[in-house]
Amino acid sequence: MAEYKEAPADATAAQKLLNWVDNRFPASKLWNEHLAQYYAPKNFNFWYIFGSLSLLVLVMQIVTGIFLTMHYKPDAALAFASVEYIMRDVPWGWLIRYMHSTGASAFFIVVYLHMFRGLLYGSYRKPRELVWIFGCAIFLCLMAEAFMGYLLPWGQMSYWGAQVIINLFAAVPFIGPDLALLIRGDYVVGDATLNRFFSFHVIAVPLVLLGLVVAHIIALHEVGSNNPDGVEIKAKKNAQGIPLDGIPFHPYYTVHDIYGVSVFLMVFSAILFFAPELGGYFLEYNNFIPADPLKTPAHIAPVWYFTPYYSMLRATTDEMLYVFQAGVVVVALAAIVKGRLGSIAKIAVAVGAAAVFVSVGGLKFTGVAALAGIDAKFWGVVVMGGAVVILFFLPWLDHSPVKSIRYRPDWHKYVYMLFVVFFLVLGYLGAQPPSDVGNRVSQIGTLIYFAFFVLMPWWSQLGEFKPVPDRVTYAAH
User: Fold this and answer.
1) Distance between CA 332 and CA 466 in Å, rounded?
2) Angle between the 254-274 and 50-69 helix axes, to the nearest 10 degrees?
3) If you compute the radius of gyration of the chain from its CA atoms, what whole number of angstroms results?
């Protein structure tokens, strides 16, 4: 039990109140450990505001979601009308609804930029592997939350988008049909599906999301923040144990983040009041039409933040699988011949490559695929899911001797640029109707996406690296 501390006799009423709280709850301790005495690198730049913005948007989504839940009806016969009621009759309901829908897109924008910053500066490298893993889990959880929330307006695109995505689970061998039935709660997307998704969107997934966010922040503050130089500031401390290149997060970075929040809110407000649909990217026009199970839209596509992965799903054809097979064999041979692997690791790589080769292509020719219930689209689901899962392994894929892009060979920047360009292209093509040219470009983009990660243990070591300074580089401004 902590020692009880008495407030000084000349303490003000506020100080006495704080002392009373501190004796029962570590308010001052938490404030000091995570803000006033949490020393962050003094050379943070523009890229480091997106973590705080992610937290801001999360709070905004929770608050607006609570108000929307007060008037929303999770009933297939009433859901669309209840959203219209919120938009037309509830005082300021249109603002709350648009804040929530625009906030969903804003959430993914800031999270994608936050993850890209981690990619640029090596924020996933030792000792921050767990910080990155928690972050990837947040991203996965966020995708589930967005997908389930997308069904709730019960518009045409909501209904048919859910229909398409849920049917993908039916492609899983053996358990697929039962799994899809479990998710839907019925043989078709209907009232049971809506109630399940509402429950998960409002209660279950947000609880997991909040827990992961807390774990992410605790893990970050335990090992300390990374910086654009990739230099560990804890290595150089003064006599008091304070990092020489660190400054208290409060007030320096709280003011820094308030400035970033102000700019973000101006942009967010401009979109909110003048273009909440943003040309059909934030809110599709088909979603302003009530869900009709008897009328399929001409083109079904998910919201923009899912389209890169949807594009990968559509790009996975038999032809693509043969290329994928060849790639697996080449990478496995390179790892066995050139890699610094032990005997057991080499055997594991060989067995894994053989298993992939047989399962992807061999089963097609033996007829085992049909018996096992492996549908052609199953491999598309595997590719789509693998595009997210591979992010979890990034700390062990990057073998570069330096963390930050600043001290890597200049051509590494073009590798990152190529990755980002094709990710954006995949996102664009995923929102467009299928075409032969688009499908071919999507296949190239999918191969580049996976090659970026799979070949990273090789290319991340190549080139002439610049010397990393002992202390962070910083110019006052």
Assistant:
1) 30
2) 50
3) 25
pLDDT exceeds cutoff 50 at 382: yes
Q: At what angle do helices 156-169 and 191-199 cross, to 10 degrees?
A: 80
Q: What is the pTM of this model?
A: 0.91
Exposure b/e, 277-304, CB count within 10 A at least 16 = b: beeeebbbebbbeebeeeeebeebbbbb
Kindly report the backbone phi and psi dihedral angles of residue 188, in degrees, each rounded to the nearest multiple of 5, phi listed first: -135, 160
CB neighbour class for 190 (10 Å; exposed up to 12, middle 13-18, buried from 19): middle
Does the pLDDT of residue 379 top 70, yes or no? yes
pLDDT exceeds cutoff 50 at 27: yes
- Of 9-23, 77-91, 107-121, least confident by mean pLDDT is 9-23
Reading the block at residue 289, the tokens are: 């039409």
Burial profile 331-362: b = 16 or more Cβ within 10 angstroms, e = fewer: bbeebeeebeeeeeeeeebeeebeebbebbbe
> What are the Cα distances from residue 150, in Å, to 199, 287, 312?
13, 10, 21
Task: Judge if the upstream peptide bond of residue 127 is cis by omega within 30 degrees of 0.
Answer: yes
Nearest-angstrom CA–CA distance, 250 and 331: 48
First to last CA, the chain: 46
